[in-house]
Amino acid sequence: MGGVCYWNMNRKLFRLLFLLSFTFVFSCRNAFVEGLNPSTEALDLNSCLYYLSRASGAKGISRYCNHSGSEIVIPNENIIEFDLASISNRIVYLIRANGNDEIWMAEISGNGKEKVHSCLDEKCGNVVVSPDGSSVYFSQMSEQAALLMVDISNDSLKTISNIAVDWIDISPDGSYLRFHERQSGYLRILSTNDYAHKFSIPADIDLIGEWSSDYRKFVIGERNAQGILNVTAYSEISAEKLGKEELFNLSQGLQYYNPIFASENTFFVLMRGGLKDNTKQIVKIDRHGDQLSLISRTAFYDHSSLQWNERDGILAFQQFDPTSSESVPQIATWDQKSGDISVIAQNAVQPQWLN
Questions:
Q1: List of long-range contacts for 95-104, beta carbons under 8 Å, 24+ apart
Q2: Are 204 and 197 in contact (CB under 8 A)?
Q3: Residue 21 carries which DSSP code?
């Protein structure tokens, strides 16, 4: 009897140990799988770079996050542009299919898609969203050209300006709206509180800089009298003080484009060495226009679409090899700390940080 009891006890103990080991292995497997597929809540979204993928089988809005790689957020081959709402974590995008333009909004994860506006027989473009996601601005590009705004809270449409607009931008804090008039060539700055006019200046789109980190100023370039060739000077515009401060003049043959603030007193710019140079390189300059460092390292690549993540010290950009018929646009990043340049996506455009 004692031997039977001993055998029964050992058998029960064996079964218990087996179940515990199985539970441990299964739990570890789940933890490993969850590590490979992190949820949106687990991601540091401010370190994720969003872009428009044109790659076969992966067309749509994608994002690249350091610890999880690239993933497609909104798969749709008909998306032609998008913008991010940094405060409300929303995506607004323009779909063009079968001759119709539609503006849609979704959560940053790609869920909760909803149509914001149907352009019907009109062509729409230059879609931007306010940081809190409450307003969507876009241009209507037809005989009835206009700058329009959709109020998401009550689904109403408001006309901001009855004029052809080919570029729109909103400050990261949502205080100011900038837009470029195609016919007059003027950059207009409005207050988003009442859309009252604040400031105007002649401008070319490729010379308009991004907002500073305090959201109150930006840098803008000027061309020569003919307005088609040399970039001659750069100035800093204060939207708050409604003023203009001249920064530096450029020597003949040296061209800077689309400056963005790297810090309070330094900028990243696209540089072209002369009018016959068909590529733009990325350089860092100071407030006097003097070059501090060369960022890009491939002279035959043309660079564009600079996007700076000041918190992480990473510059994102688009590059393309115009000397090769097989070249496709790439999204790449430069790490300020290590100096490394990494290509993160092939056949991709429009890089954009959430912050």
A1: 103/127, 103/136, 103/138, 103/150
A2: no
A3: H
Length of the chain: 355
The class level of CATH for 78-203 reads mainly beta
Q: Which residues of 216-232 are buried (b: 16+ CB within 10 A; e: fewer)?
A: bbbbbbbbeeeeeebbe
Domain coordinates in residue numbering, the chain: 78-203
Adjacent-strand bridge partners of 231: 223
Q: Which residue has the tokens 């029960």?
A: 12
212-217 LR contacts (CB < 8 Å, sep 24+):
212/261, 212/264, 213/261, 213/264, 213/310, 215/171, 215/172, 215/173, 215/175, 215/176, 216/171, 216/240
Q: What is the 3-state secondary structure (H, E, C) of 152-164?
A: CCCCEEEEEECCC
Residue range 266-282, pLDDT digits in tens: 999 999 876 567 899 99
Q: What is the per-residue pLDDT across 132-174, written as a single tens digit (0 to 9) for each?
A: 999 999 999 888 899 999 999 899 999 999 999 999 999 999 9
